[in-house]
Amino acid sequence: MAYLKVGLVGAGVFGGYHANKIAASAKTRFTGIFDPDQARAEALAEKHGTSTFKSEADLHASCDAVLVACPATYHEAVVEGALQAGLHVLVEKPLALHGASAKALAALADSNRLVLQVGHQERLVLEAMGFYEIDESPIAIESVREGPPSPEGRAGDVSVIWDLMIHDIDIAVTLAGTDAKARGEGRRHHTPHIDEAVADLEFPSGASAVIKASRAAPERRRAMTVTYPSGTISVDFLTRKVENSTPYTIRADVSEVLPDSLGAADEAFFAACLGERPTPIPGREAAEAVRLAELIEQTALQTIGA
Questions:
Q1: In the chain, which stretches have pLDDT less than 70?
Q2: Bridge partners of 33?
Q3: What is the pLDDT at residue 305?
Q4: Are the C-beta atoms of 149 and 216 separated by less than 8 Å?
Q5: pLDDT at residue 145, as a whole number
Q6: What Rg do the C-alpha atoms of the chain give, in angstroms?
Q7: pLDDT, tens digit, for every residue of 241-300?
Q8: pLDDT given for residue 65 in this prediction
Q9: CB-based contact 53:62 (threshold 8 Å)
Q10: Rounded to an integer, what distance in angstroms lies between the CA atom of residue 223 and that of residue 238?
């Protein structure tokens, strides 16, 4: 059986999650890890019986593909370096912090026939629930994703728009289409960046979306309501409660068909690199969420005088 030589950039929390998937897959050989924090890289490498590298270039020379799980501010440079080295790339969201940069990375991957996949694995959840089987276009989407501040300051290098909201922006694009207009409002709380934001999207079809995100909320909330011509579907992703007045079947509990969305996304990436299937979350599609997130952040900063 053919296998993929896979390296990892980033040995933090999400790097650890991806390391577990690389090590467990029958499709891969875990060639090693690069992280500027050598001690952290060595600890993770020891856990999985693999190597560490002193530079990204050294890591590139050892593998066919890399998973990128470093802080978001470094995604663009790390992804570009790996693509320039001729490697397939799976990068945690967001693909980049500028729409033009994301589009350029996607074009680079496509022109070199390389797989570029982005960590919007909630697309797989929507598919498992049955949203992709609906043959109507939505009229309106409302999403909320909130939680308390992270005790370890995770993702404090970027705003909540890039940290949390980007997931729901991608979902809105997946359901309602591209080329939306976007604007946002924001507030700071415990970081120098926007910690609470509301975005309004208007799609060419006439559909609209209101997306709320916070990492300064007293408790966790994760919900979505999608209105179609035939009715409304409301989902509470924490309680797995679904209210559905449409004629379409939506599965509230997908744990049997999709027990591990991150693992499924990583496996799909490995398979795509081996030519077994297309990637389910290509960079050229994820770039649209980056474009909108940049617009939302620019207008949100204006609301707080930044």
A1: 1, 151-155, 305-306
A2: 8, 52
A3: 66
A4: yes
A5: 98
A6: 19
A7: 999 999 999 999 999 999 999 999 999 999 999 999 999 999 999 999 999 999 999 999
A8: 98
A9: yes
A10: 8
Neighbours of 207 (CB within 10 A): 21
Query: CB-hemisphere CA count at 13 Å for 57?
Result: 0
The count of other CB atoms within 10 Å of the CB of residue 220 is 11
Identify residue 108 by its one-letter amino acid code. L
d(CA 105, CA 155): 22
* Burial of 234: CB neighbours in 10 Å, binned 0-12, 13-18, 19+: middle
Q: Measuring CA to CA, which residue among 103, 228, 232 is closest to residue 178?
A: 103
Output the pTM of the full model. Answer: 0.95
Q: What is the pLDDT of residue 1?
A: 58
